[in-house]
Specification:
490 residues; Growth Hormone, Chain: A; 3 domains
Length: 490
Amino acid sequence: MEGKPAPDRRRWWTLLAVSAAQLLVVLDGTIVNIALPSAQDALGMSDTSRQWAITAYALAFGGLLLIGGRISGALGHRRTFIAGLVGFAAASALGGAAVDAGTLFGARALQGAFAAALAPAGLSLLTTTFTGDRERGRAFGVFAAVGAAGSAVGLVAGGLLTEYASWRWCLYVNVPMALLAVLGATLVPRDRAGRGRGGLDVPGALLSTAGFAALGYAFSEAAPHGWSSVRVLSALGAGVVLLAAFTAVEIRSPHPLLPMRVLAHRARAGAFASITLLFVAMFGFYLFMSYYTQTVLGYSPVEAGLTLIVNAVAALLGSVLIAGRLHGRVAPALLIVPGLVAAAAGMLVLTRLTAHSAHVLPMYLVPSLVLTGVGLGCVLPPTAGLATAGMRGHDIGAASAAYNAAQQLGAALGTALLNTVAAGVTASYLAGRAGRTPDEAVVHGYTVALTVAAAILLAAACIAAPLTKNRPADERERQPTPDDDLIRPR
């Protein structure tokens, strides 16, 4: 039996601290993108190596998430959360002070490693702190809104800081934000560390880290080198083999890093599938919005980022006013499926664009950004809730880590896959149609890629509908797991 809920004030401090940490993690996935050209000039990075400022963070974050989830369960979610924040702040300061490319790349990898502990610990804290349907709906709504807005905020902040301060402040800004979150985390109710269930699953840890890193590397290299290159195919093959071996090890391990019972649940599988495919589509969408507004419409980086604020506001409204209020009152499918369909509709709006379209902002961009934002806001809270519903002990950390890993893999795959589709269609369009302008070819490539993204979202809706049609069973009816006695609030 769980301990008594924490006092209301302390519960909402938990939400504030976790939301601030979530903003840090998501924001750092995009804020450096805008600053990268300036950082490249300052540190003398080559065109071929500069991507590691982005890739190092993504690989460390995605590759270490399952280990971070296990550490969170073993050491206690609150303790892991605070340690992750302090480490993230230190790594950010190191990156901001970098005097060469190697230091920057190493600092970005350290940021990803600490984020891999921070993210699952934060989601686990929300799950154990907010237990009632109404308050959990509000908490997950705010948490999801911050996550949904983080990427757009990162683009805007990156543009503003780079233009008016320095690219280094895109990293330095994390330090005060992280320390404020640490201050809030000191008011979070304590939890106890896990006891007596064995050490770290070392074979599983090594296989999962190597497998996720190999897949992430393959996705990052697919855009510049193509899916048929030996480098990409080798990394993909290695990733698949390593994760297959990881699954085999976890089935047999007495203390698995990722218990298969976390995945072998119909509604949770629907949540993981939904969030993965949503991120595949949405990160391709963000990429094209950034490229289209800057290369075709001539927006500055700051103007392009500010355009995406429409999407962030819509996601905030969708997650708090719609999903947050209905969480626990309706079946998850009644939020997830319409959300996926709305996001698909938003992308289909942009497939009508041409290089000569007039009134682009009010007629195309704003409707698309609103629909995709509301869709994103409706999907994130119920999938986050389903990912950890009925979990206890180490399983909460494992489920939280798996949910974050699904987002990371979806984002990496979506960026590479849809960028490859757009580039291939653009090249074919120019080769097969004499007299066409580069802008016409580029816009055509974007619209075809967005059609693919919309199809992915509609497929996700078809998958999610039967898997998430019922409300999750009350936790009191859940069969106990071997780790139920590990985490107890003090």
